[in-house]
Write a structure and sequence with these properties.
elongated; three-stranded antiparallel β-sheet; mainly alpha; Multidrug-efflux Transporter Regulator, Chain: A, Domain 2
Length: 119
């Protein structure tokens, strides 16, 4: 689910239950106004709002933000494309793509095995 291409450089997520928007901003390397905008664009992202409309994000929200960030910044998706990818509309395409990748990897490994046995 999570595309960890750039996320390896992001800090580890602490074992807390709730995070403020400032903490999430630092954890995901995204400015707070971008997080507020993404809340409007991605229905999957819905932090808990408490007194004074303060946002409190949970761990799954932080992971979702990191995934959105990877789709937009690292993979070059548009907002609409990222929204569609996250909604699961392309799940069938992804499954066939991964199956094809696995078949190709297995074929390459079999070729390496045959080359090793030939020696």
């Amino acid at each position: 689910m999570l595309e960890p291409s750039h996320n390896n450089e992001l800090p580890a997520i602490p074992g807390k239950r709730y995070f403020t928007i400032g903490e999430v901003s630092e954890l995901c390397a995204v400015k707070p106004h971008v997080l507020r905008y993404w809340e409007q664009e991605f229905p999957q992202l819905s932090p808990v709002k408490r007194r004074g409309n303060r946002r409190y994000y949970q761990r799954q929200d932080v992971l979702m933000i990191r995934q959105i960030r990877a789709l937009l910044y690292d993979q070059g998706f548009t907002i609409g494309g990222a929204r569609q990818r996250l909604s699961g509309d392309e799940a069938k395409d992804d499954g066939s793509h991964y199956k094809q990748l696995i078949r190709q990897t297995v074929a390459e490994l079999e070729e390496v095995l045959q080359a090793l046995r030939a020696k």
